[in-house]
Amino acid sequence: MKKVSIIIGAVSLSIFMMFFYGATQESPKIVFVDVNRITQEYPKMVELNERYKADFQYYQNKLNELTKELENMQKSGASQTDIEKKQNEILTRRQQYEQLLQNEYQPKMQETLNEIADKIDKYAKMMGYDYIMNKQMLVYGDDAYDITDQLVKFLKAQ
């Protein structure tokens, strides 16, 4: 019987401490954002995507020219060896162009994403947020805690 009363006392004390400690602690400020929208609307990222699309189109046009040359070769009855060489040239160029684009734009994209993350960190500290969650990772989030619009405005103003 004495053991039961000790256990009940310990549980009661634990519950009391949880409520007392919980009442004295301020709840963390947790909000969420749509990271995809933030990156899509960030001015530097918009500019980077436009340059990427232009460069991609430039290389695509070059590949289209090579493909037309291949089609003309096939129509004119070029040898199978020459046709295969042209096909290999097209494949090689495609790989080279993809590598060029990746080498140029991947570091720039990463740098821009790091810049966005730094600015989000700055905004969180400025606003007193303890956590800013990615909306895509949430099962549910009340729209009242979605600060995407405010963060987009902040990032555009920077």
UniProtKB/TrEMBL annotation:
Transmembrane parts of this sequence:
6-23
Which keywords does this Swiss-Prot/TrEMBL entry list?
Coiled coil, Membrane, Signal, Transmembrane, Transmembrane helix
Q: Which domain of life is it from?
A: Bacteria
A Gene Ontology molecular function term for this protein is: unfolded protein binding
GO BP term (any one): protein stabilization
Alphabetized Pfam families for the sequence? OmpH
Gene3D superfamilies, alphabetized? Skp domain
Coiled-coil region(s) at which residues? 49-103
Q: Which GO terms describe its cellular component?
A: cytosol
Family membership noted in the UniProt record: Belongs to the Skp family.
Write the protein's name. Answer: Outer membrane chaperone Skp (OmpH)
- State the species of origin: Pseudothermotoga lettingae (strain ATCC BAA-301 / DSM 14385 / NBRC 107922 / TMO)
